[in-house]
Amino acid sequence: MNKRYLSAFKCTRNYVNNHYNFIVAADSYLDKCITAVHFPTNEKTVSAKLHSENGCYNELWQNPHVSSTNTMNYSDMISKIKTCLTTTHNLTSQLRLYSSSSSSEEEAYLGYKVKILTGKCRSAGTPCGGGISFIGDKGKSEFFPLGDSRLTGFETGAERDFHIEVDSTAVGALRSLRVMREDPASSVVCNGWFIEKVLVKELASGLEYEFSCRQWLGKVGESGSLGGSGADIGPVERELTLEGILEQDDDEMHAWRPSLKLYTAAAAVPHPAKVKGGARATVRRDGGHGGEDAYFLTQHSGVYGLGVSDGVYMWRTQGIDAGEFSRGLMTHASTAVASGTSCAQEVLKDAAAAVKQSELKGSATVCIVTVDLQKRMLRSANLGDSGFLLLRDVEDTNPQVLYATEQQEHEFGRPFQLGHHEHADAPEDAMCWSGSIQEGDVIIAGSDGLWDNVEDRCIMEQARDAMKDFKHKGMRFVAKTISDRLTALAYTISTSTNEETPYSRDASEAFDMIYSGGKKDDICVVVAIVDDK
């Protein structure tokens, strides 16, 4: 049976001593009808619930006076309803239409269609439900649940569709969303929810919106507070703005703002076993490497570029030095930035194409960050399990993580990577992000040797302490202190057998066993501090 319900006309006019005819509608099995309904003057809210049952209508409103019934197509019927409510009688109303069918004519009055894309990174999914609120230029909606009693939770890499019934005209043109993750039940283990993005279609207008997230909700160890333990919980609610809302290239808009300056430093160290064998890192101001890890730093016409890449060591068993591959990527990325390319993903594409042309063999993860100092804009492209943090208010007691990349993995321990082989990933698979920067922001990029061993909370703590202790010596000295301390800390933890680390936590979940200790690996760290020129 095709049941359609028309409900919740909320009229705000104060009525006087005359009666109004309101048009309401419903479908029968074979035709479409309208019914003009007459109601008393003292009605402030009129609710109608129209059922199609055996071809008959019932449950209109109490004691209705039906004045006429005529055949009319659906579009004309809705037009008459809107005209009657908003024009003829100068009323405002809220119209909600519930439907079990997918009629396109009906959908124009059903609110929003929402698609939630959960990330593909490690442990991105959650067994918990969520919620969403819409914020527009006219107002904001209440929170609506995402999920129901039969199907809750969001799997890693999955897409879920929702139909949110809300008056989109009262919200207006969408400006942002608020998304939340529900608290887990006491018996449920939940290490956060990583949302890639949210797609929204306004059914009344057909407008489509894309809200980028690429952030955790309720991530363990990401509270932003430096005083807690590894079990600190990050924010379970975030506000998402429109994709690209910061991507404005109007030079006049930026001309009045003073240019910023970036102070950078880097550090690297090979795998402990390689160090024991006599291997040493090469660290220069414009680039370097340690083991199969490599990095670059360069600038051109107010655009600064930096990046890290982690070559896959196992190619050694086939006589291939993957360190050459990662170093080649960083060399060509530096060349792309120096040639005027400011888009991080384009830098990544250029570097990948150049490495392919040079016929280097191997594979590597890669993270590219570009910073336009005049426009105060950061752009990034990350493929695999290298990545970066963008920190703000580092000197405060509660610094903020504005953005944190997440591992892209096909499965645990097998990250996305560029390479010469047929199963390699492509630059287009990279997770891209852009956002504004300001004086005092700290960018920390690193290979997985950093992220697998050091909690984000500890990274923020190291940045805060270095800023507090050595700011008087200049930002370049602070940047060098942060990079050196983080590299040393990650190296120490990597050799531990009993420390709880991000890697041990994820390994325990992946293998359903208790795992403790660090992960021995090459380590590369690049730090950039934004300062007023």
List the helices and strands and how they pair.
Elements (H helix, E strand, L loop, with lengths): L3 E4 L1 E2 L9 E8 L4 E8 L5 E2 L18 E7 L2 H15 L7 E4 L4 H4 L4 E7 L11 E7 L7 E3 L12 E6 L3 H4 L2 E8 L11 E10 L5 E10 L19 E5 L9 H5 L4 E10 L2 H5 L5 E2 L3 E4 L2 E8 L2 E9 L10 H17 L5 H14 L5 E10 L4 E7 L3 E6 L7 E5 L4 E3 L2 E2 L2 E2 L11 E6 L5 E5 L1 H4 L4 H15 L4 H20 L7 H10 L11 E10 L1
Antiparallel strand pairs: 1-7, 2-5, 3-4, 4-6, 8-11, 8-13, 9-10, 9-12, 12-15, 13-14, 16-30, 17-18, 18-19, 19-20, 20-21, 21-22, 21-27, 22-28, 23-24, 23-29, 25-26, 29-30
Helix pairs in contact: 6-7, 9-10
Distance between the termini: 69 Å
The structural class is alpha+beta
The gross shape turns out to be: globular
| Largest sheet features | 8 strands, antiparallel
Computed over alpha carbons, the radius of gyration is 29 Å
The fraction of residues in strands falls at: 25-35%
Number of β-strand runs: 30
Overall residue-averaged pLDDT value: 76
Task: Specify the helix fraction band.
Answer: 10-25%
Which regions contain 5 or more consecutive residues with pLDDT less than 50?
1-75, 84-109, 223-232, 243-256
Give me the number of helical elements.
11
